[in-house]
Design a protein that fits this description.
single chain; alpha/beta; four-stranded mixed beta sheet; 7 helices; 6 strands
Length: about 150
C-alpha cells in the first residue's frame, strides 16, 4: 500500500510543464490503476490549506479536485490511537508533529511506502518507508511498488 504526502498532491495540480507535476500525476494515476494507494484525510486537509493560502485556488475548484481523488482512491482518517503513536514517534525519532500524525495514520492503514520529498528519504519507521519520488535513485523502487502500465 502506498500513500502520497501533501507535496505530491500540490505538484499534481501545478502547470503541466513542471517535471514534478508530471511525475506526481503519473504516480497518482499508477496508484489508482493498481488499487494499491490510499489518501490520508490529513493530506487532503493540508492540500486544501496550501491551495487556498499559497496558490489562491478557488474553493470550488479545490473541492472538485478533492472529489475527483476521493472518487478513485479510498480516504483514511486519523483515529484516536494515532495521536499516541505520533507523540511516541516525535519523542523517539524527532519527527515534526504533523509528519508523525501522517505517519501514524499511514501505518495503521497498512501503508508501506509514503511518497514525500519532505521527510528523510529511505527512513523506515515501523514498516513505513519514506520515499522521495523525485530522486532518480528511487526510480527502481517506485517502479516496483507502483509499476508503470
Amino acid at each position: 500500500m502506498v500513500t502520497f504526502d501533501t507535496n505530491i498532491l500540490v505538484y499534481a495540480t501545478a502547470a503541466a510543464s513542471d517535471p514534478k507535476a508530471q511525475r506526481s500525476r503519473d504516480l497518482i494515476v499508477r496508484g489508482m490503476q493498481l488499487g494499491w494507494s490510499v489518501l490520508l484525510l490529513q493530506t487532503l486537509a493540508e492540500f486544501s490549506n496550501v491551495a487556498i493560502r499559497k496558490a489562491g485556488i478557488p474553493i470550488d475548484d479545490i473541492r472538485a479536485t478533492i472529489a475527483a481523488w476521493r472518487a478513485v482512491l479510498p480516504v483514511q482518517a486519523a483515529e484516536d490511537s494515532d495521536l499516541t503513536a505520533a507523540l511516541d514517534a516525535v519523542k523517539a525519532h524527532r519527527l515534526a508533529f504533523w509528519d508523525a500524525m501522517l505517519w501514524a495514520a499511514a501505518e495503521r492503514a497498512g501503508v508501506r511506502h509514503l511518497l514525500t520529498e519532505d521527510l528523510q528519504d529511505g527512513f523506515v519507521l515501523q514498516g513505513v518507508r519514506f520515499v522521495n519520488p523525485f530522486e532518480r535513485v528511487n526510480d527502481p523502487l517506485i517502479d516496483e511498488i507502483l509499476p508503470p502500465s
